[in-house]
Design goal:
mainly beta, seven-stranded mixed β-sheet, four-stranded antiparallel β-sheet, 11 strands, globular
């Protein structure tokens, strides 16, 4: 299994920026694609962005393209989500996820939960 711990959430005004971090431990050698999802109150969890562990291929949801950037530090087993020009609609609990088998980052959103590890989430609140 892979353990994931998110950090970096908080309260920010619209137009501001936040940087989320996700530290992975455990069987990180078996963790390939990693990414971020979010869940707003009363809504289903949705895909935000994903990155391959080697190669740096990235994919984004249309709603965050041009504003969010996902990156990773292989030496520290950490994935980041830089969020710029935040909007009130970005308010949500943000979860880090890691695949447990080799898949491209575009498939991270479609894996069964048994094929993914999840963090506990970090809250992002954007005020208008």
């Amino acid at each position: 299994q892979v353990q994931l711990v998110e950090s970096g959430g908080g309260l920010v005004q619209a137009g501001g920026s936040l940087r989320l971090s996700c530290a992975a431990s455990g069987r990180t050698s078996s963790s390939y694609a990693m990414g971020w999802f979010r869940q707003a109150p009363g809504k289903e969890r949705e895909f935000v962005a994903a990155i391959s562990w080697a190669g740096g291929t990235t994919v984004y949801a249309d709603s965050v393209k041009g504003r969010f950037t996902i990156s990773r530090n292989d030496d520290q087993n950490t994935v980041y989500l830089q969020m710029n020009n935040l909007k009130p609609d970005d308010t949500a609990l943000y979860y880090c996820a890691a695949s447990l088998r080799l898949v491209p980052p575009s498939e991270l959103a479609t894996l069964h939960d048994a094929e993914r590890s999840w963090g506990q989430g970090t809250q992002v609140t954007v005020s208008s």
